[in-house]
Specification:
Blueprint (H helix, E strand, L loop, with lengths): L3 E4 L2 E2 L5 H12 L5 E8 L4 E8 L1 H18 L15 E10 L3 H19 L3 E5 L10 H5 L6 H4 L21 E5 L4 E7 L4 H11 L4 E2 L20 E2 L6 E8 L4 E8 L7 H14 L4 E7 L4 H14 L8 H12 L9 H4 L1 H4 L12 H9 L7 H24 L8 H36 L6 H42 L5 H26 L9 H29 L1
Helix pairs in contact: 1-2, 2-3, 6-7, 8-9, 13-14, 13-15, 13-16, 14-15, 15-16, 15-17, 16-17
């Protein structure tokens, strides 16, 4: 899976939009970056910008934005309602997909080091990137704001993590960190009462409600030994919530910030609010997402509701997403368009022209005078078809009448098959890309001894890659045989021939991919270095053929 990171820098200017335009132009100048949102605030005199991409590109774009902001925004004349201590006040990185929080922290600290060293701006690392517990809190890092920064920098306790411990009067300081994805999420109620909405919000939010004597609304506040109000915690961790009335829709809502969807995902928040609303005689009618949501959050929601229905979770992603939309009522107030609301889909590039094509388009492309796509991409495609057939039989088995007790068993098989065919689909384009890279290597200049050597090295590297990709096709396809064989042995008996066709597809894919390896191996100079690769390919082909024969024999016995 491609690594994707979101970056949400806050710039201390929400009034001069020409400055913000120059900053966002710098962000968009980095190839592969997608600008998602620009939100200027006049009263706060602050602009929140959201962009995303692969991590290397993101930290490059973030650095350019911070650099431009330090040149154009003068903190000596800045006034606004929001707390701030720098031209770029805060710059968090948020892992979206294919990347862990620990990896995101590494990128955040790399960015912080570069900003401190090259721009001479004091940098404090916060949240997951913090150097100690006290600095995890953004509020602590920013305490004293810009006006107190010069004095703060003199304190050993608040020496910056990166950059000089000297006051930069123009740029101030910056907090750079790594945090979880925050989802702004509203839940719709069949009431106009803000009082009821707030009561439900207090029931569920982590901070809960203030503890009182007697009457929970007007009773005397109970305080601790330090004079601070005691609180009754809510039922949902990492959730902020409040009730309000939306005149536009004529309903009350629970407005929520889910600050850690790993702890409290969207579907858990929805079900808990539904339960608490019911206790108060109120019904949840739907919900509303503000901004974008990660793909995995939607998939987990869809799978959650499928499991409640005892249905297979190995169905295609778009079907899972539709289950999530309908179960959460995300289309109650306005249409919910996944391509515009799921962050990975918004960022989707044109890296996969073959698999994004129609069947007719793919076949016509294959039949054209171009040498690619060719046999390698066809092998990966056929392998994906085979894995998809095994997945189909698993899904049919999970939903077979009378087999209700076995739905989870077949759902697990469907999930495995789905993972295989999705990986093979990625290899369809990767194989064609590897061929194109080889052709580019052959087109390199030969006008000097150095150029000849560089060309030769590039050809050998590209040739090796053109063998590694089909080996991946072979390995991945062989995994589908577990699903296919299990479906022939224990799956829906009405569909075993579909699984049998899947096995034939798999053996074709494996044998076809091995041919690709052999043709490239014939021109590879260092044969000894690829001996292990060639042996592995031969073994995989033999084992797949054996399993296919076993599966076909089993099918024929069952059909007698």
């Amino acid at each position: 899976m491609k690594q994707l990171v979101e970056c949400v820098p806050n710039f201390s200017d929400g009034r001069d939009l020409s400055k913000i335009k120059k900053i966002t132009d710098a962000i968009e100048s980095v190839k592969g970056i997608r600008l998602l949102n620009i939100d200027p605030g006049y009263a706060t005199n602050r602009t929140v910008v959201t962009f995303a991409g692969e991590p290397e590109m993101v930290i490059e774009a973030a650095f350019l934005a911070i650099k431009f902001a330090s040149e154009m925004i003068d903190m000596r004349s800045h006034k606004g309602e929001h707390p701030r201590f720098g031209a770029t006040d805060v710059c968090p990185l948020v892992p979206i997909s294919g990347i862990t929080m620990d990896q995101t922290v590494e990128y955040a600290r790399r960015l912080a080091a570069r900003v401190g060293n090259e721009l001479a701006i004091p940098v404090y690392c916060y949240e997951y990137a913090a150097s100690d517990e006290k600095r995890r809190s953004l509020a602590n890092c920013r305490a004293g704001e810009y006006e107190g920064l010069e004095e703060k920098l003199k304190s050993i306790e608040w020496k910056p993590d990166f950059g000089p411990a000297t006051f930069n009067p123009r740029a101030g300081a910056i907090a750079i960190g790594a945090r979880d994805f925050l989802i702004a999420y509203n839940i719709n109620l069949n009431t106009t009462s803000v009082r009821l909405a707030n009561s439900i919000a207090f029931d569920v939010r982590e901070a809960g409600r203030i503890k009182r004597e007697g009457d929970p609304v007007v009773g005397k506040i109970i305080k601790d030994e330090f004079g601070e109000p005691l609180r009754i915690p809510g039922t949902l961790k990492k959730v902020r919530a409040i009730g309000w009335f939306i005149k536009e829709y004529g309903i009350a809502q629970i407005s929520m910030n889910l600050t850690d969807v790993g702890t409290t995902p969207v579907h858990k928040a929805f079900d808990e609010v539904s339960l608490r609303a019911h206790d108060r005689g109120v019904r949840v009618t739907g919900s509303e997402l503000i901004g974008l949501i990660p793909l995995n959050a939607m998939l987990e929601a869809g799978k959650y509701f499928l499991r409640k229905q005892q249905r297979s979770t190995g169905i295609p992603d778009d079907e899972i997403i539709q289950i999530a939309i309908k179960s959460l009522g995300l289309d109650e107030l306005s249409p919910f368009e996944p391509k515009k609301r799921i962050i990975e889909y918004v960022l989707e590039s044109e890296d996969h022209p073959l698999i994004n094509n129609s069947v007719l388009g793919f076949i016509r492309e294959m039949a054209s005078e171009s040498a690619a796509p060719g046999g390698g991409s066809a092998a990966a495609c056929v392998g994906a078809l085979g894995a998809a057939l095994g997945t189909m039989v698993a899904n049919l088995s999970a939903n077979k009448r009378g087999w209700d007790s076995r739905w989870e068993e077949f759902s697990d098989w469907a999930e495995k098959g789905k993972k295989v065919y999705e990986n093979l689909l990625m290899l369809v384009d990767q194989d064609t890309n590897s061929f194109n890279q080889l052709m580019e290597a052959f087109r390199l200049p030969k006008d000097s001894p150095e150029a000849i050597q560089a060309r030769k090295s590039a050809i050998q590297t590209a040739t090796l890659n053109a063998m590694i990709i089909p080996l991946k096709v072979m390995k991945t396809t062989s995994e589908s045989m577990d699903v296919i064989e299990a479906m022939v042995e224990t799956g829906n008996p009405n569909s075993i021939t579909d699984a049998g066709v899947g096995a034939l597809c798999a053996v074709t894919a494996v044998s076809g991919a091995r041919l690709n390896i052999l043709v490239n191996a014939s021109s590879y100079e260092n044969k000894d270095s690829i001996r292990e690769l060639l042996d592995e390919a031969e073994t995989l082909e033999n084992l797949t053929k054996e399993r296919c024969n076993k599966i076909q024999n089993l099918i024929h016995r069952k059909l007698k």
